[in-house]
Here is the input.
Amino acid sequence: MTAVIQVKDLVKQYSKTKEPSVKGISFDVEEGEFFAFLGPNGAGKTTTISILTTTLAMTSGEVRIAGYDVSTQARLVRENVGITFQQPSLDENLTAEENIRFHACLYGMCGYRPTFKLMPASYRKRVMDLAEIVGIQDSLFRPIKKLSGGMQRKLEIVRSLVHTPAVLFLDEPTQGLDAVSRRGLWEYLNEARKAQGTTVFLTTHYIDEAEHVDTVCIINQGVIAASTSPEAMKKSVSTRIENPTLEDAYVECLTRTGGLAA
Amino acid sequence: MTTIEATAIATAAARVQGATSRTTTEATAKAAGASVSTGAGTSTGAGTGTKTEQALVRRQSRVWREVNATITILMRDVVLSFKSPSSLIMSLVMPIMMMGMIGGNLMQNMAGGLGFDFGTFMLIGMLVNMLFMVTATGMTSLVEDERTDFTQEMRVSPVSRYSIVVGKILGSSFGAIVSMLGTVIVGLIMGITLSLGQWAIILLLSPFICLSGGALAMILIGVIKSARTANLAVMLIVMPQMFLSGAIIPIAQSSGVLFYVSRALPMTYCIDLVRAVVYAGTPEYAGVVLFNPAVSILVIAAITVVCLILGTFLFARSGKNR
Here is the structure.
């Protein structure tokens, strides 16, 4: 197994701040791994994911994605990653399909054509298949602003998978979704991950979503507090708690490593 | 077999093909000391696959991809224009105010004894002004895209930042072309006409005018985060040009500060270049044209390139260096 994400001594200090948000963290993510990057608000999760996806410059350190350096080979890194941002990044005035078409064309999957019917058959089939899987086929040609939050989130994930990325970054993908939408989204993601062998890098505040990942990495106040499997993490919980959940282990880890971030 | 399984098989096939291609390409590139465009799903013969091919695969040609990305960004603005007809209507109405009211008044009251037909002079000035101004103001939608986080989608895509900016400028120029059409209609109503050859020349030069207007605005767009501020800032750089660059008021006799200001404005050279080619070989040429067309071309090219490089640099840097 080879590391598809390599992070070494990563430091990020925003301008006009007194101390770094990320303080020299290091970790590796293997190819095909499901990696959960957890932490409280302000711990440095989104900062780290932004650096890994080339949208934010690091202060120091070394980060390689799919073998490419994020600082010097940003375009090659972008070729290999798919991202679902914490904040929706869809054009609300375009339809769901037009948003996917925009994405597919930017990634060089096909030449731009003004209508869906004029797009290549391979594109049309892929879009219809993905839409059917996540249950948005009836809304594919409706403007984004008329879709529910859950549908928009699903669409963003579909969009980030259209170009079959080697690594998929999901920054709080289920934030604001109801339980049914969350479950549907995870069913799709797990199926897609298994079928395509995509490495998934997840950040979430719903700790139960990380129960079935390969590795849980906890960041607190800019430093890595723990990095292990969910099972090992649960076993590390003090004996006072019977049948501890991952959330118990997570909270205890944060308390043990300096409390919660402000 | 489920749909996702079928898709996965096709994807895996594309990946295997891509991996083979990647290994070969990288080996060749390493030997040549060059970097290569690879990635999951990369495939030789991409885009030329058979009709039965199910998976979408990426094209290899970097040039094709950059051009395609530019067209995609351009077309998004065109699609949005049709979805929001109010912006198109505004583009058509603006010439009525600019040329019909301001120009018409000047034509009736102040255009005597100039030695050339003021109507034609003004029509050309207004056409260039519309192209320049509407493209520049259209660029402010990039700030709006920043606010709605849509620029994130463009920033993380594997395309050159120049393709993004040029695509955006060309997209904004669609509204400018509509305004040009409005100007022509107003001109016709006012009895001002140009020959087909003159129209062809103006159309031929219009992409360069739009590019220079958009590039100039990009310097501001690259550093401003608020759509409201961006609109004001762009208006501040385009409105003075309408009056000081000779669009509707002749500047051949300007002196003092106004002389230097008019020579420092990019639109002065755009207007003068168009007038130089439209008036070429006519007796009015000397009274209308200020500079040798070669000088205008050089100045426009220099300003556009500098603004484009600086504006793109600021745009790329604004999100990344925080």
Chain B touches chain A through 59 residues (CB under 8 Å). Confidence is low (pLDDT under 50) at residues 1-54 of chain B.
